[in-house]
Design brief:
By secondary structure, this protein is an alpha+beta fold. Helices cover 27% and strands 25% of the residues. It has a 5-stranded antiparallel sheet with strand order 3-2-1-4-5. Strand 1 and strand 2 form a beta hairpin. The mean pLDDT is 93.
Amino acid sequence: GVIDFGRAIHYNNVIVNMSREGANLAARASGLPKQNIIVALVETAEPLAMKTEGMVYITEVTGRADGSAQVEAQFRATSGDSGLVSQTWTCPSWGAGGVCNVPNPRPIINLGVNLLPTDRVFAVEVMYDYQILLDYVMKVGPKLYSRTIL
């Protein structure tokens, strides 16, 4: 149990750092395709098995006059657990290459922060279906989650 608890803390720290780094890259590297950021995050996520047990989403939003957010685009990893869905906004239809077919009119969401009409931010979510080693205490591992908005 102690080993599983320690691993879960370590894995959670990894996904928190992944979401922070992904948000930093998405916000600063405007010319870099978002799929390249997701691939870089997934490829450098050791010891996590992100290609089978995890998922990464990048949601681009713009601010509105009422402080809410409007979804402009959403991207997800092309490999991984597609059962782990975004908690920022759920895309109704995915296109090729992990690009969301965002409907018109653009969806309005509440990010929990007030945005100005000139704001353009990225919400990067990293999720992981943690698999426990020993099932003495818990039969099913927790779903680890981190979101960074930048």
